[in-house]
Amino acid sequence: MTTARADARILIVDDEEDTAVLLTSVLRKRGFAADAVFSGAECLAYLRRDPVDVVISDVQMPGMSGIELCEQLYRRYPDIATIVLTGYGRLDTAIAAMRAGAWDFLTKPATGDVLEVTINRALEHFALQREVKRLSNQRSSDQPIEDMLGESTVMLELRRMIRRVAATDATVLITGESGTGKEMVARALHRLSDVRKNEPLVAINCGAMPANLLESELFGHLRGAFTDASSAREGLFVQAGSGTILLDEIGEMPLDMQAKLLRVLQERTVRPVGGDTEIPFDARVIVATNRDLESEVEEGRFREDLFHRINVVAIPVPALRARTGDVIILANKFVEAVASRRQSFLRGLSRRAAQLLVDYDWPGNVRELENCIERAVALCRNDEIDVDDLPRKVVEHQSTRLELSTSSPADLLTLDEMQHRYVRQVLAAVGGNKTQAAHILGIDRRSIYRRLEPAQPDVRPTTT
Do 285 and 311 form a contact (C-beta atoms < 8 A)? Predict the structure, then answer.
């Protein structure tokens, strides 16, 4: 007899409470961490709160049957082994359960020995699957994610983070300056999710419409709920199905809508405008912002409870000036794409043009770089982009990055100037997250505001 894994978590699902409690007791005595619920809906609610390794479910249950539960578990939780309990001689039911995604089936009444052997086989099988998946992910963790180019340290870490988080259902808060590619990160999270990638991804800009229209867009409305509501309409939370909903620029959301969104995220249900019935939703929630939400909370512009609800996993997207080594990689890709679209031939960038692109600070980030290349390709009259094809602001720019390689004492920075520039560079690298930046800098968060005040250069005496 194999020994029960001490940390294995088993969930029993049976509408007959006596049976569920008995099975739970049997498994606990054999060393498993077992718990019981009494319906398929309770099982799904339980899994949203607590992870388990194995679900053992009865087939004949009111409401959601064991077969329907198998389908839901196979789609939403592919790493959970589902074992169904069938009546004697019900081979057709067992086959239906296996087709629905069950890992195995047992005939009632199943003895404790049979349960233990079957559970341990399932645990070994799924442990092997996870190890294979881990090794596969390890090999590919540094490989580019489609459209997310760059070989800088911060981009390698961002891709690793995306791959790790994509495999979970956790709510994600994506932060970063405008133009850094926050929506691209959200789409990568959706695309890399084995469970949700074939379902819709719907996105909405929370700052692009008034609160009353935003509520209708998100939660839906009934016919006649307001003027022009000539028919009922599902909101985006429901339209997303079992996919992903992206709430972009959540920092722009009005406070009254923030309160409604908090309730929706807590209850995992929406109430259409004009209705009184709660509709459950299954979509994963991703939010994005270019604001420092902790500062917004301090200023009373963002609800603290909502911030904690959405800040389950934070993914900061670095500014382009924090990964200058990626500028030419991105620029060459944009040149290739724009030239191909215009059916023109370009060798790429001249050495002088490339250096200017690297030296520029890119306040508009990747989006600004892409627009710059689009303009340069349109103006280029030779077979490579040169200085004359670049915008004047790029050519004449004085970089604010911290550079110590200078041969002229007159160009050296004061300590205040160096501090100011370094703080800005750290903030750029962590997507504007002041709490994370303060931790890296070894100062308290409030000190960052003081250190961000424009540095006043010393007036150096001239030598005669």
Answer: no
